[in-house]
Design brief:
globular; 14% strand; binds pyridoxal-5'-phosphate; 7-stranded mixed beta sheet; disordered N terminus; 4-stranded antiparallel beta sheet
Length: 414
């Protein structure tokens, strides 16, 4: 399936008609994937739920088998509700061929990896990867005879030394989960290309708006749409967008695995996407204000945020990213588990829970040392990860300020 079929209007969609200037992200998220032939005059594609599709004749049924792309065939192959979101995500990645959707971000990672790896292959996986990604490598992939070597997120061009005869794929995540190291993606991509190795990126933190992955040479880019695309903490959804030459295998693997994302969830995902650019701007502004404020607090030993000069890979962030999102961590100065819990438990606006990317703030105790194989950490105290939501930043700072006072009290009463 070529790009032409996915985008009958060609590249005109991403370029302003009058000036030839590339359309701004805010404009692209509003227009992407909206096709009149699927929705008539309706602004949002309705929820098309289906398993059985009825045909007028045996001849029509037979004819459809060989041509199911963007035609109703059987529910598992999707309906315009799913196609509209997949198309929108493809449009947001300049140079991409197509997108497949999944029932979660982890399911998307599994399909992307299984579309590339076979028994006997080796995967290079960044040491700062999302914990369930590590579990997949050490569990399912290992059981299938696929070995994994972890690499230091700051390896850059040095990855060339790790690429061996059996290395088939490199899975990056930048910035890293919990600790936010920014990788030199172009250097890793160049080393991979020179050796015919496929590159994958978990781009959930940045989304294509802050880091267009395919344009940076990535072959398969994965999003936990559960986070910023959905944006409202009420849907599980994932996507993989493929560069030319990688989509057919991704789609075939995904269909063989029986993957289908629910039309209801895709409808909510498409709805969330329309406001993603404006939400990301606010997440970035508030998170950065809080990160800088935290840097000034005596109870805080370090703030791990790609926009701050102390963050490993900050120079790559400045070079490659269009901005930051709203998730970062900070390290407390001394203190133990109980002192950290005193900080977090009393917070009013920050909920205690997994996931992120929704409209509401979250605070999570995180312990990255548990999830590292080849890199060490020597942190001054326990770590807290913040998802900064859309509440007013002054209220969030007041909340954290009271939290740090509770932390101080817990430390001094020992
Ligand atoms: C949450 C997350 C995922 C998994 O997404 P789910 O939809 O929760 O399965 C993958 N990668 C990163 C970086 C995440 O934060």
């Amino acid at each position: 399936m070529g790009r032409g079929q996915l985008h009958p209007q060609g590249d005109r969609r991403s370029v302003s008609k009058d000036s030839g200037r590339p359309k701004d992200d805010a404009t692209r998220v509003v227009s992407a994937g909206r096709r009149k032939e699927w929705t008539g005059g309706i602004v949002n594609p309705p929820v098309w739920r289906a398993s059985t599709i009825l045909y007028d004749s045996v001849a029509e049924l037979r004819a459809r088998v060989s041509d199911t792309h963007h035609k109703l065939f059987y529910g598992r192959r999707g309906t315009p509700t799913q196609w509209a979101l997949a198309d929108a995500l493809t449009e947001l990645e300049p140079g991409a061929e197509g997108t497949f959707l999944y029932c979660s971000g982890v399911a998307a990672l599994a399909a992307a990896l299984l579309s590339v790896l076979s028994p006997g292959d080796e995967l290079l996986l960044v040491d700062s990867a999302y914990d369930p990604t590590r579990s997949m490598a050490n569990g399912l992939l290992k059981r299938m005879g696929i070995t994994t070597r972890f690499y230091d997120p700051m390896i850059g061009a040095g990855i060339a030394d790790l690429i061996g005869e059996r290395t088939r794929a490199i899975l990056m995540e930048s910035p890293g989960s919990l600790t936010f190291e920014v990788q030199d993606v172009p250097a890793i991509v160049a080393a991979a290309r020179a050796r015919g190795v496929t590159t994958l990126l978990d781009n959930t933190w940045a989304t294509p708006l802050l880091f267009p992955a395919i344009a940076h040479g990535i072959d398969l880019t994965v999003l936990a749409c559960t986070k910023y695309v959905v944006g409202h903490s009420d849907v599980m959804l994932g996507s993989v967008t493929a560069a030319p030459g990688h989509f057919t295998k991704l789609r075939d693997t995904s269909l063989q695995l029986g993957q289908v994302a629910s039309p209801d969830d895709c409808w909510l995902g498409a709805r969330g996407l329309r406001t993603m650019a404006v939400r990301l701007k606010q997440h970035e502004a508030s998170a950065l204000t809080i990160a800088r404020w935290l840097q000034q607090q005596p109870e805080v030993a370090a703030v791990l945020h790609p926009s701050l000069p102390g963050c490993p890979g900050h120079e790559f962030f400045l070079r490659d990213f269009k901005g930051a999102s709203g998730l970062f961590s900070f390290v407390l100065q001394g203190g133990d588990e109980a002192a950290r819990a005193a900080l977090i438990d009393g917070l009013e606006h920050f909920g205690i829970g997994y996931s992120w990317g929704g409209f509401e703030s979250l605070a999570l105790p995180v312990d990255p040392v548990r999830y590292r194989s080849v890199t060490e950490r020597d942190d001054a105290g326990p770590m807290v990860r913040l998802q900064v939501g859309l509440e007013h930043v002054d209220d969030l700072i007041d909340d954290l300020s009271a939290g740090l006072a509770r932390f101080r009290e817990a430390v001094s009463s020992r």
